[in-house]
Amino acid sequence: MTSQGRSSPLLKARNIWVVYSDGTVANKGVSLTLYEGEIHGLVGENGAGKTSFVHVLYGVVRPSAGEIYIQGVKTRIASPQDARRHGIFMVPQHNVLIPTLTGLDNIRLSNGAEAVDRVYRLVDELGIDVDLDTPVERLERGMVKKIEVLRALATGAKIVILDEPTSVMSPVEVEDLSRLLKTLRGAGYSFIFISHRLDEVVEICDRVTVLRDGQVAYSGGVDEVEKLYRLMFRGEEYLEASSMRRISPMLRVFLGIEGNGQEELARKYLSGSRGFTGYVPGNPYSAMVPGMSLVDNVRFRVLDQDIDYEGLTLRIVRSYEVVARDIYTPIDRLSGGNMQRFIVGREVELSEDRCVLMYPTRGLDMRSMALVHRRVWDAVERGCEVIYFTEDMEEALMLGGMISVVYRGRVSEPVSADEADVDRLKMLMSGIGWS
Amino acid sequence: MELSPMQIYRGVATILAVSIAVAVYSGVIILYGGDPVEAYTKMFRNAFLDPYGLRETMRLASALGIISLGLSIVFRAGLWNIGAEGQYVLGGLAAGYVVYVLGLQQGGPLAPLLIGALTGGLYAAIPGVLRWRLGVNEVLTTLMLNYVALYLLYYVVYGVWRDPQTGFPVTPEIPGAYRLPEVGGFVGGLAIMLLIAPALYYLLFHTRYGFKLRVYGLNREAAEYAGYDRRAIIVGGLFISGLLAGLAGAGDFLGSYYRLMPRFSSGLGYTAIIVALLAYNHPLIVPIASILFAGFLYGSYTLAIVADIPTEATYLMTGLLLAMLVSTQYMERWIGWLARRL
Amino acid sequence: MSDRREFIKVFGAGVAGLAGGYLAGALSAESKVAEVPSPAGEKDVLRAAWIYISNVEDFGWTYAHDLGRRYVAERLDFLETEYVESVPENESLPVITQLVNEGYEVIFTTSFGYMDDTIEAGKRYPDRIFMHCSGYKRRENVGTYFVRMYQPFYLTGLAAGAVTESNKLGYVAAHPIPEVIRHINAFHLGARRVNPDVETYVIWINAWFNPEAARAAAEQLIGIGCDVLAFTEDTPTVLQVAEENGVYSFSHYSDMSRYGPNAHLTGHLANWGVIYEDVLIRAYTGVWESKDYWWGFYEGAVEISPISDVVPEEVKEEILRIRDLMVENSFEPFTGPLVDRRGRVRAEPGRQLTKSELLSMKWFLEGVVGDLPGEE
């Protein structure tokens, strides 16, 4: 533990409260201490308050109460510019680099020539493996994330907040990023690492803070993983999800990082079905109408049919545990996870003989994922064929069904989840072992 | 109808915006040595209490309102019809064609009125087809077609339809048979507007077509995802808005100007855009907004007369009002926050 | 004041309510004769208002009308004036309505496009006086007025004929209507008086106010060899173009000489003030009745600017001599023999054209070059 034994923490947030104008209380007295040269995991389900908390640290959200100390000095962070002045930088979940430019040009563009020198020095001194001379759009997402981290350091950041950096990475890429962070940790940089994948957190982080319902449920070392699981997922659901592993040819799982030919595959499955085919596209926002109520968000999908829309909406809300004031609430009032569960629920429930789900659990916590998996199996059991795309190998194994890996337009021979060889799947996902 | 907190904040914000604009402009009036209270009182009196003033206000309000109603539909579909000006002019021109060239006497004003409206609708459908088939941005095409309509108007007014009696660049006054009956001054136009408003409300909020329009406006991708017919939405939406602009143009020609002249429309089609936005593109609010805006536009001349403010400076009031209303979005949030605190 | 009240009753509704129709107008637009107290109390005030098509600073048409307003405002101590500028043609009726509500008793509408609205206003407010400039529709409380601009155009034609070297005169013309045709013919007639070889080339710009089109037309005329340019357009643009190109031009409606100090030969000016004065005094004393004012040199409603030294002395004297004759009403430019360019005799030797012939002129004299839509 590199962080142990240091006297003065680099960053200390004490008793942070965040109350939004619509009355939502996102943080209820959250405290966190970050030492120099520490990778600090921040975990919790959707809506646990992770995003609000780091937004406070980054000056996006003003806390309703609480203090922030930087190197022991009480500091007010009024804006992201302010945060960067104090050496805090946030790498958002989605790529913000300009895709047509190289990594180097991106850094030069946003931070000037001086920053380029600084990055070169870092790369040389620490022996970092990074491609700065290829246009960003041609790089793997793991590499892009590394460039974003370096760009943050080039601005003079001492603390980098990483918001779900691994959510769309292949296992090999995750390992690569983990190596980079550990190297940088050795050079004295500190990281706040947001994730909901516990295996990663255990592997990468020195310490971890678990949030639940806006409060700190645990803060300390990462050794007690079992305890963490219980804290995060309230026990049973996760176990239930993992014990559900069943096999059916009616559930086809396509495992692979997005952009490897999934769109074409999905299109193939969307045509040639007799009844209504449910479909959750890769970007769930294109499947909802902001500004319209939940009922209308069901209605617009199957407009010209004789359906009890209110009843159906109510059913979806109940069985997918969507938290909403009522079914007349505009859909954009829901939190991201609730919105997504609602869309997935609508498509699964409307499906007659086939349902195509593209990354339906992306960004959902384990509990929500387990819920979706249960409903998917319900659909399979009533005779509906489910085509399920995921980027997460763990999820594919948990879900069950017949798994194929998708890589650069190629689809591997399906294997049933209980016979799958984890190492082989990993290799296939990374492009190794294809004949 | 239960009002959601958002709608209430919105209302409060709008009232606040208008109040701020009025307060700032009071300063301008004082600067010119006028008495703001007197000026505003007279403004209101001239626009709404005086029988003829009311008539003028309502005449403008109905033309403005009918155009805005059409725009509120197409704006709801997320399509920017900037061409109401041209559709209005072409409505007048088509009605003129029926009167001056075809000379269709049967039915009096009915034939030119309907043909004017239809022409306006078809004229707006052109950018619709271009958008639907070729993906051409309707902002550009509708705007450009304004000029086409305008030059067509110049062509007939300065050329083929010019009044042969006087040679002035205006067309001859239309015979009495073609004129819209003057029902109590302004009641006719107002009645048409007040009939159209609930009809469009019903269309927008209680029919499948209206629902599809709104979905398309809120999220185009979602509309495609649900498999909606883009043609019906794009071409149909633009057609409806053009139809109403054309109706207003033909109506003004047959009911209030009785002739065409180079300045047949002094920017009515553009003002209507502002009115539609002021009314949050809601067909039941548009009539109210258009009446208030018309009163405000006419009342601004009162300021020029009473407070000796240059006419140009009265445009400042319009600008202020708009700036304030645009910032209401921010005010909405602020009011919401304040409401929680209290 | 009581005398005046009696007077008003005698003259009836058309001219009633001049002194204090303020409240009557405000409360009931339909009200006829008004037995109401004067708002000014002691002194009887007449309130008059002008509606202008453009900004008073246009240095042409509207500027000249506003000079007229200022002229009467200074001279008539019973008068209160107001004006509203830049009123689009379609919006004059609401402006008139508001002026009536504010108690204005005489309203001048100074653009042709206001004609229908002015007549409508006359119907609505029978106790107010309306004067519409340049139109042809009247009713018992709506009069019309214009100036005999062709008279100074005749004189400026003399100056043009004297200085031209190419014998080609240019004319940038607004609309092919009798008024403008009259000006062109008068200008041409004057030029031929001193120089029988001149031709006048006409380009229509189809606008009263369009500096860009005026510039293009002026440059085109210079291009075909015209070295003196007359114009009917509301800005000093043509004079500016003349100055830039070393040719000659004029002032139109109001003094524009500073826009072309070298190019400025002389100018045709309107003095609307004398018409306004006559209308307002008649209105104040209750003896106004609807008619068409068409005033010229004789009434002092038109004038020419000082003549440039470029014009030969003997022509200068001739111009001033004819001017004085017109002031005495003993000369009329449109006197026969007049033959149009299609060879038709328009006036036998010695016969003057009648007012109605002047007002419906749709032909060009021999030597005027250019298209004339609707030529008879």
CATH class (first level) name of chain B: Mainly Alpha
Kindly report the name of the CATH homologous superfamily of the largest domain in chain A.
P-loop containing nucleotide triphosphate hydrolases
The CATH topology of the largest domain in chain A corresponds to Rossmann fold
Helix-strand string of chain B:
HHHHHHHHHHHHHH
Overall geometry of chain A comes to globular
User: Would you give the CATH topology of chain B?
Assistant: ABC transporter involved in vitamin B12 uptake, BtuC
Rounded radius of gyration of chain A (Å): 22 Å
**Whole-number tally of structural domains of chain A:** 2
- The total count of helices of chain B amounts to 14
The coarse overall form of chain B would be: globular
- Low-confidence regions of chain A: 1-5
CATH class label of the largest domain in chain A: Alpha Beta
Tally of helical segments of chain A: 15
CATH architecture of the largest domain in chain A: 3-Layer(aba) Sandwich
Distance between the termini of chain B: 25 Å
- Broad structural category of chain A: alpha/beta
What's the mean pLDDT score of chain A? Answer: 85
Calculate the mean pLDDT score of chain B and round it.
Answer: 87
